[in-house]
Design goal:
280 residues; single chain; globular; 56% helix; 1% strand
Length: 280
């Protein structure tokens, strides 16, 4: 009798949990359908990727944009625009045809918050060296990731090691071997792996199920609001907990809702209080 009651109790909890997940998914899908549109992209450095139809250019422009995606959004947009205009219409052609001395001259005196010209030059030269060795950032990333990997961590770590080999990139690129959430790197991967009305995609050998949420202050508030994490530190463990929470809702694409949810709090016309009313 006791075993039967315990089984019924556990079954009831499962039904309650499944009901909660189904209800939450309906709410998230509603927000996704309304806000996952290009008209809500600006201001977001993702906007720059739409200028590059060729994948080999888009991955370079996207990587640069993601590396600079810290600080005030208006300053981010300004500095990314400055860099990409200097590089020209084809980032791939620029890196393949310029000597390091030319790149140093092009960005002499560059400064953005903690980043100086030497950090940007080293980042660009590191990208160039990866392309020389692997033909693209994508191929370098694929070298150490497989379909059996639960996350993109191994590929990201390998890419980081080759871009920064004996090169100091400062705050432009976080080290995935440390405890950092690597928000900007995971943001870049979302742009390149996912493909919908907002994310342009291009990297087709990585499954969206392997992605990790780009954890910034907005996604941390949302993850806490949904009960996906109780941790105080915004590190990789917290990012993984929030990702796992979204995987309960959508196992094959846990980062699907990242863009539409983080519009709340970023855009002046969409407040976090309004989001809370819609999902809780």
């Amino acid at each position: 009798m006791k075993k039967s009651l315990n089984k019924a109790y556990k079954t009831g909890l499962k039904y309650a949990f499944d009901g909660y997940v189904h209800n939450l998914k309906e709410k998230l899908d509603s927000i996704y359908l309304k806000y996952n549109k290009k008209e809500y992209v600006n201001p977001d450095p993702l906007l720059f990727l739409y200028d590059y139809p060729d994948k080999k250019d888009r991955e370079i422009a996207g990587f640069i944009a993601a590396c600079c995606a810290y600080g005030r959004v208006d300053m981010i947009m300004q500095v990314v625009d400055q860099i990409l205009k200097k590089i020209g219409p084809s980032p791939f052609a620029y890196l393949m045809n310029q000597a390091k001395k030319d790149i140093e001259n092009d960005f002499k005196g560059f400064k953005y918050r903690f980043a100086k010209d030497i950090h940007l030059v080293n980042l660009l030269w590191g990208i160039r060296e990866v392309i020389n060795n692997y033909s693209s950032l994508e191929n370098c990333f694929y070298e150490k990731i497989s379909s059996d990997d639960k996350t993109v961590h191994n590929g990201l770590k390998f890419l980081y090691e080759h871009i920064t080999a004996n090169r100091e990139t400062g705050h432009l690129l976080a080290d995935p071997k440390k405890n950092s959430a690597c928000k900007r790197s995971h943001l870049f991967l979302r742009w390149m792996v996912r493909k919908d009305l907002v994310d342009p995609g291009g990297w087709e050998k990585v499954s969206p199920s392997q992605l990790i949420v780009p954890l910034d202050t907005h996604m941390y508030k949302i993850g806490s609001m949904l009960g996906f994490t109780k941790r105080k530190n915004q590190d990789i463990k917290t990012a993984m907990e929030i990702t796992q929470g979204f995987k309960e809702v959508l196992p094959n694409d846990p980062v699907k809702y990242d863009f539409c949810l983080t519009r709340f709090g970023i855009r002046r016309d969409l407040s976090m209080d309004n989001l809370e009313k819609r999902i809780l």
